[in-house]
């Protein structure tokens, strides 16, 4: 089910977002599932789930999925890899690639920190840099 906690996301694109989250630790520290409701304008009420897999500590992976009335998306971050992603909003579908340059995971007490450096690759456009820190912990 998960325990109550918080998530704080700091990104170059959206600034700082902090909200309540349900956090579930998976199989003997092999990863985490974090679920929360979006609060950003245009995405309010959308459910976002982060699935962080650290079973192979040399190659952590993170999947971000969103489901709501106005938004649906799926994004995978795997250090050193390029993955496919999609983002659907009310009137359009967008597919793109994510080139993850760095995905670092730190566990500090009852808090998890994830640093992401990536580029979103859209057809016929310059790569869009994405830099973020995600932090979650139990209340």
From TrEMBL:
InterPro entries tied to this protein? Calycin, DUF1934
Q: Tell me the superkingdom of the source.
A: Bacteria
What is the protein name stated in its UniProt record?
Answer: Uncharacterized protein
């Amino acid at each position: 089910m998960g325990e109550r906690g918080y998530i704080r996301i700091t990104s170059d694109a959206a600034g700082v977002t902090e909200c309540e989250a349900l956090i579930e630790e998976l199989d003997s520290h092999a990863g985490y599932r974090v679920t929360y409701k979006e609060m950003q304008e245009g995405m309010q009420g959308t459910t976002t789930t982060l699935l962080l897999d650290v079973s192979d500590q040399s190659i952590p992976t993170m999947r971000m999925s969103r489901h709501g009335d106005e938004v649906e998306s799926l994004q995978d971050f795997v250090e050193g890899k390029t993955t496919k992603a999609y983002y659907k909003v009310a009137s359009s579908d967008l597919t793109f690639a994510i080139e993850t340059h760095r995905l670092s995971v730190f566990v500090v007490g009852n808090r998890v920190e994830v640093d992401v450096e990536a580029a979103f690759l859209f057809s016929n456009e310059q790569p869009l840099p994405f830099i973020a820190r995600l932090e979650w912990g139990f209340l």
